[in-house]
Amino acid sequence: MSLKQITIYIEEAENDFYNRLLRDITNIETCHVHSFPSILKIKPGSIQESAVFLFWNDSKAMDKQKFIFEHFPESPYVILSTIALTPEVLSQVAHPTCLHLAEPSYSIGNLDLVLNFAERLIEDMIRSIAYDKIREKVVVLENVFEESLDILMQIDPTTKQIINANKQAVVVLEYRLDEIIGKEFSFFIPPVEIDEDEEFQGNLIESSSLRSKSGRLIPTESSFRLFPVNGKMAIWATFRDITERKRSQEQVKNQKAFYEFILDNLDSDIAVLNSNFEYEYTNPVFLSNKEIRKWLYKKTDVDLAEKLDLAPEFYETRKKYLEVAAKENEIVEFEELIQDHNDKVTYLLRKYIPIDDSETKQKRFISFGVDITERKLSEERITYLAYYDALTGLSNRTLFIDHANQALKNHKSTETLLAFYFFDIDNFKFINDSLGHTKGDILLQMVGARLKRVMTEVDTVARFGGDEFAILKVDVPNKSAAAEFAQKILDILSQPFHIMGRDLFTTISMGIALSPNDGVTSAELLKNSDMAMYKAKELGRNNYKFYTYELILRSEKRLYIENSLRKAIQNEELILFLQPKISTITNQVCGAEALIRWKHPERGWVPPIEFIPVAEDSGIIERIGDWVLEEACRLKKQWTEMDIPSFPLSINVSGKQLARSNWSHRVQATILQYGINPEEIELELTESSIMENPEKSIEAFAYLSELGIKVSIDDFGTGYSSLSYLKKIDADVIKIDRSFVVDLELNEDDRAICKAIINMAHSLGLEVIAEGVENAAQRDLLHDLGCHMIQGYLYSKPLPVEEFVVFVKKFNESAKTK
């Protein structure tokens, strides 16, 4: 064959004729061939030029023909058939050229003939399109000439007579077109002293004017260029009316004072610097002292720093970014910290915007500064919460583990030990319940203060949450020394605490693990000290216990729970409870959190705090998580059929689930299996679970986010609080931990933390939910702070599914009547 380069798209079919066609076409070296299941599924943007479509004459032939006419009108197509095609059939579905290939009459010669004809059709179409484009350009140019708002004339270069003029010339000059044509163009233009050669090289003549029929002089700028017209060279003269420009120049003068007034009254500081980085303008926000502002004219930041007694970093930083803006000719943005001689700290977000002054041909820089002190202090507070306990000021679990890992890594001595102490306050729940959370918090703060007084610089003391504390001591000489320190802690914490007019006596139970004998990792040592602490409690509390091999017996209980838990999944002993979430805007149920409950056939209800950690450690949590997901999807489908209002159902996700490579696909498959909207499911995870495998977490939730599944960050502010990972995880909802809500109406620090978290969430476009809301005062404060949703015993405890459905209907109906 003598075909040129064309691309053939052939529709697949399960017959011998298709295989023969594909083989013959593939043997044509100059052709590219692509097969596809159906022409109706081709994406319009994916087809190359010079395309020929081959598709089968079936029940959808007319739809295919319509599809090609709409999306690929320049491409011919060929009808394929295993039987002979009659003229009547071809007239209905074939290309206007009746291109077709039928198996009874097929030969390579016919294929060659059809494809060559198709190729010529493509070439004709391309030429036709090119010709149409040329005609369009000509029409456009004619329209541009005729409809231009500038006065356009075509002038004979020999006679200087006007050959043609546009509508604008007729309107402005007040002459008819036949009165303009034939006149020398100088008739309309006052004499201008200019070199004739330059005149026709396209030079602009400013401050010239045109004279109309009524004698009115019209200020213009004009240009003259040689250009071919109908095969001959002609002068194209363009005259632009600049009356408005001159008027604008006057307006600019008037507006200058107006704009300076605006700049002087902006809340942000504004300054203008010249190419030497010298100040030419500053507004009152930049410098409130008017005398210093006058003094600063033509001065630099070096002079300003000396005048205001600022550190050298002030002008060094500004100079560095000014030089970047000048070199790159781009806007530069940076944050700066300014501390004056009174130690007042101000954070500014500054921009340097380079501009080119058309009059002086010099570069200038607009300096734009916004005070972000309040935002920075809020961010620093949140960052502080990432590593320190907000209540006591002690290290939190994250910082403790980091210090522990460093100590284990750097401990080389074989003569000293690392001691891990883990303890909690005996009967602390009774103290909270009987005296109130406020006094409980004060007790925790006082415990933290006493612990700080007995720590050395190299020791680490942390609050893990609730009433749990941990201490790390390095270079402990021996076990006796470790015991002496433990007794010291017991003694100082057994002294009475004077809280709000009364003395409160407490005791603690402590477990101790020593490295390297009891473990070589922080996780192992914390686990063993935790086991030892529970042994101390069993022995009567108010004492300490070293980790010993006997404590392995305690793990047998965990093994029993683990085995029972595996049977619980098989025997369907797990039950899903739901706790409603209430919108602060609509006062309607806007979601629910799915919570797992276990009813053991012998022990009855097993507390989640007892079996969830076992499930996490053993990996059973993955199977439980899959069951919860499937059960939640089943419920959502059932509720849809029952016409229960649609809202997201939150499912808690563990770090173990995130570690699975196919977990996100399992979530997608389950949602598709039940045919529910992905937005009906919300995945709730803690910051610590993200950090177990941050990269996999980011990858999994990026995939699920594209499907429309919401992501909620649970217990925000108590874990890692990594803002960088929070951004990468692309979260939709932040859940404020109950520890910041429990005394919200009484504790100003809690209110400040909640406000900072909510403001940060708003700025990131995230929704906020607060858990643990127990009274109306907390609800009202959260509403005023801008919290979107609340969850807690104020409305409902976690309910079985049937009771939850009744609650939703009753609550929503009650809310509508209010």
Helix residue percentage: 40-55%
Strand order of the largest sheet: 23-24-26-27-28-29-30-31
Radius of gyration over alpha carbons?
Answer: 41 Å
Low-pLDDT stretches are 194-207
How does the helix and strand content classify structurally?
A: alpha/beta
The description of the largest β-sheet is:
8 strands, mixed, barrel
Mean of residue pLDDT values? 84
Secondary-structure arrangement, i.e. CATH architecture of the largest domain:
Alpha-Beta Barrel
Domain EAL: 558-812
InterPro entries: Biofilm_reg_signaling, EAL_dom, EAL_sf, GGDEF_dom, Nucleotide_cyclase, PAS, PAS-assoc_C, PAS-like_dom_sf
Domain PAC: 332-384
Protein name: EAL domain-containing protein
In words, what does this structure look like?
The protein has 818 residues and is of the alpha/beta class. It folds into 5 domains: 6-130, Rossmann fold; 148-246, PAS domain (Beta-Lactamase), CATH 3.30.450.20; 266-376, Beta-Lactamase, CATH 3.30.450.20; 393-547, Reverse transcriptase/Diguanylate cyclase domain (Alpha-Beta Plaits), CATH 3.30.70.270; 559-816, Alpha-Beta Barrel (TIM Barrel), CATH 3.20.20.450. It has 28 helices and 32 strands. Strands 23-24-26-27-28-29-30-31 form an 8-stranded mixed β-barrel, surrounded by 6 helices. β13 (332-339) and β14 (345-356) form a beta hairpin. α10 runs antiparallel to α11 (312-328). The model is unreliable at 194-207 (pLDDT under 50).
